[in-house]
Amino acid sequence: MPKLLTIATVPETLTGFLMPFTNYFRAQGWRVDGIAQKISADPQSVAVFDHVWDVEWSRNPLDPKNLIIAVPRIQELVARENYDIVHVHTPVAAFVTRYALRNWPKTKKTQIIYTAHGFHFHQQGNWLANQIFLVLEKLSGNWTDYLIVINREDELAAQKYQILPRDRIFYTPGIGLDTDYYHPKQVSPIAVAAVRAELGLTPQDSLLLCVAEFTPNKRHRDQLQALKKLNRSDIHLAFAGNGQIKSQTESLAAQLGLAKQVHFLGFRSDIPVLIRASRATLLTSQREGLPRSIMEALCLATPVIGTKIRGINDLLADNCGLLVEVGDIDALAQAMAWIVDNPDSAIQMGQRGQSKIAEYDINKIVQLYAKLYDRALNNNTKNSINLNNCQKHGENFIY
Predict the structure, then answer these.
(1) Residues 324-360: pLDDT tens digits?
(2) Fewer C-beta neighbours within 10 Å, C or N terminus of the chain?
(3) φ/ψ (deg, to 5) at 307
(4) pTM of the entire structure?
(5) Contact call for residues 78 and 110 (beta carbons, < 8 A)
(6) Sign of the C-alpha dihedral, residues 229, 235, 241, 247?
């Protein structure tokens, strides 16, 4: 029975994004365990994994406990449980785990796989920060058996900077989306009408939606400034999510005189309904890996306005959305107006996006992971399946 250990900094990553993988491999007879901070206190994690292990670490990469406490804890667990595959996610957990296992005896045959959910060096990044993060990725690449990247820019960067040899760098279209759940047929017109009534919208009002944590990187302020520039009372903007700068963003909306047009919704469990109630979704981030909120919108045949950055470029290529430069308020305002004033063209754009998103379906991504895990277990690159631009049983595998 193969043993798989899945690691992230916090349990929300494991339950929010990786449960389909856990369920699949457990159904195949694998033992699948999870590591995260305070994971034993998370009922959903306890239910989905065979075993869960707590590790004290922090999202702050400079927190000394990441090395002082977490490193020996990781070494103890992996040695005791003798895992076949250790699959790491999220930057801090991924670096600390690989550092802890950097001198792991090769006789143990534990394979280390890292899914990069977006390198912290990127085209929009600060030069010095980019250099630091690149050095760290190259360093930890020496302690990694296989690297998975989820957008094309990161794939090219990993190859260019030789973070790993090319035959151990794999591209997958994200980490999967339940395309059945995020489907227009799952959202009733009654639910859409209820949301619009909740927000006090008239039939003449158009709603634009942003689903994103309130952090400076998401640049919610750009959307507020674009809405102010439009000076149109018929366009409303809703923000779903919480975060460190939510109150600051609320204050900015009030200062701009937009209090009646901007709706701060906090945490919502009805995201598909909100998306279907909107004319478009917006994401104006400076950095992303492969944003789930855009994938959800495309799956629901709702057009998207996004910034020209990695990940978003992948999703909105082929006229599946509108792209603007980061921080370009004028272009953002024009895009918002175009969506509202060209409803037929916007609907067609949403339909193109819906057709494209099929390749991101969770079931396809799970099968890609299964192929890579099989290769890792065999640990024989010469005899393993060649995944380079080949097709087998209708699936694409690219490295």
Answers:
(1) 999 999 999 999 999 999 999 999 999 999 999 989 9
(2) N
(3) -90, 155
(4) 0.87
(5) yes
(6) positive
